[in-house]
Specification:
Layout: E1 2-7, H1 18-27, E2 30-36, H2 40-52, E3 56-60, H3 72-82, E4 87-96, H4 97-100, H5 104-121, E5 125-130, H6 133-144, E6 151-153, H7 160-168, E7 172-175, H8 185-193, E8 199-201, H9 223-234, H10 238-252
Parallel strand pairs: 1-2, 2-3, 3-4, 4-5, 5-6, 6-7, 7-8
The structure holds nickel (II) ion.
Length: 256
């Protein structure tokens, strides 16, 4: 059994066919999915789609690349989604200096506010970090001082050393398509060293399709290819990786 912890079936790419994509995933044992929001529209769609299916859950959050378009009203909307059981996480939120270094201050501000919501509603964070690992760590470390953090470093792209530091803050590490890329040294290293009870898998579809579909549209069934690669790296079976990461995700997202 598999749990794709990060999909964007709420993206325009899947507007016409998310129903088929979900059926296909279920038929190939990808039984659980999170649909991750990143702005007003996708938070709404994640909520609407998740409500229609069993074992599909939503998150609501404000993505760092878009912070100039967000205000307090958007945060209040995220908060309203968090009051619903179908919403299992806050995010994606975080820091992204690859696309927008110039909004650094505001990114940090919105990240902190979403960490506060995670604490208030006791729902885990789905954290996006690109080219901002140290700042993200500093913000999370500060926030962990008075309150145990819950969350996942989604599509984690940092070093194995940093991965251990995030694990020590109480966070999970999620790996996606890049771990299957031939020259992906760091993600493969991370896949080997993360404690098995802190590992999650995801697709981040429609982006980042795993090998041999790299560059094509990604979809939840391909999470099995991520599991297959991790299994090979750790000397486990694909079923073992599927089961342990599913149980981890159910624990983190508080799913019975
Ligand atoms: Ni994403």
């Amino acid at each position: 059994m598999f749990y794709d912890t990060h999909t964007h079936l709420n993206a325009d790419d899947f507007k016409e066919n998310y129903d088929e994509i979900i059926k296909e995933a279920n038929s190939l044992n990808v039984k659980y999915l999170n649909i991750v929001g990143f702005d007003k529209n996708t938070n709404f769609l994640a909520n609407q789609i998740a409500k229609k299916y069993e074992n599909i859950f939503a998150s609501a959050g404000l993505h760092p690349t878009d912070v100039n378009n967000f205000d307090e009203t958007d945060l209040r909307e995220v908060e309203n989604y968090l009051k619903q059981d179908i919403t299992v996480a806050v995010g994606e939120c975080g820091l992204d200096y690859y696309w927008h270094k110039e909004t650094r201050e505001r990114q940090i501000e919105f990240f902190k506010k979403q960490i506060d919501l995670s604490k208030k509603y006791n729902k885990p964070l789905i954290i996006h970090v690109r080219d901002a690992m140290q700042d993200a760590y500093d913000v999370l470390y500060e926030a962990s001082k008075d309150h145990k953090l819950k969350g996942v470093m989604h599509c984690y792209s940092g070093s194995s050393e940093m991965a251990n530091r995030f694990v020590n803050l109480g966070l999970y590490i999620s790996l996606g398509g890049p771990v299957t890329f031939k020259n992906a040294k760091e993600p493969k290293e991370v896949a080997k060293i993360v404690p098995l009870d802190r590992l999650l898998i995801e697709t981040d579809c429609p982006f980042l399709a795993p090998h041999p579909y790299r560059g094509k549209q990604n979809k939840p069934v391909y999470v099995t290819l991520v599991a297959e690669e991790i299994a090979a790296l750790r000397g486990l079976t694909i079923e073992e990786v599927g089961n342990v990461t599913t149980n981890n995700a159910k624990r983190l997202f508080n799913i019975k």
